[in-house]
Amino acid sequence: MNAGTHLNDLSLRLLGRAFDQLDPEEVRVVQAIAARAPSSRDAADIGDAQASTGDRLADRVAAVGGSWGFIIVFSLVLLGWMLLNSEVLQRFGLAFDPYPFIFLNLMLSTLAAVQAPIIMMSQNRQSAKDRLTASVDYEINLRAELEIMRLHEKLDQMRIGELAAKVDELCARMEQKGIS
Fold first, then answer.
1. Which region is the signal sequence (predicted)?
2. CB of 15 within 8 A of CB of 22?
3. Coil, strand or helix: which one is 132?
4. 135-148 pLDDT per residue, tens
5. Domain assignment of residue 108, given as a range
6. CA 165, CA 24: separation in Å to the nearest integer?
7. How many separate domains does the chain show?
8. pTM more than 0.85
9. Is 34 contained in some domain?
10. What is the C-alpha separation between 54 and 43, in angstroms, rounded?
């Protein structure tokens, strides 16, 4: 029996469909069962391997920009900017952005315009990681279910074999006693 026939027979027996009609996840599970190889994979490793440099950069920017440390430091910088330009530097006539802080407003708008799409890219990547994790979880669950079904089949075959042996033994005893 060649490998293709074996995979098709296994697919028909376990999933009730021909091998060429299976989803990619199901194909990987049937192949792993046929090869008696583990089918678990780490979704984080797969996601990291597929990530581009831009994806990794977006994740780092989102990690920094969405942290309490960033919020606190940024708030202190804003407060310092406003204090410097309203009290300290204005006394000497050196305020580079006096009240109403138009330059500060421009910088904040620019930061928001750049940071928001980067954070959205990171969220989209996280969503893709979640889908990949769900796919890997599905494969593991399917593999476990199919292996349990195979074990049930083996147990049923063992029981049938034991029953057949008992019937044969009973028939042999009946023949010895002359009962037909």
1. none
2. yes
3. helix
4. 999 999 999 999 99
5. 40-177
6. 43
7. 1
8. no
9. no
10. 19
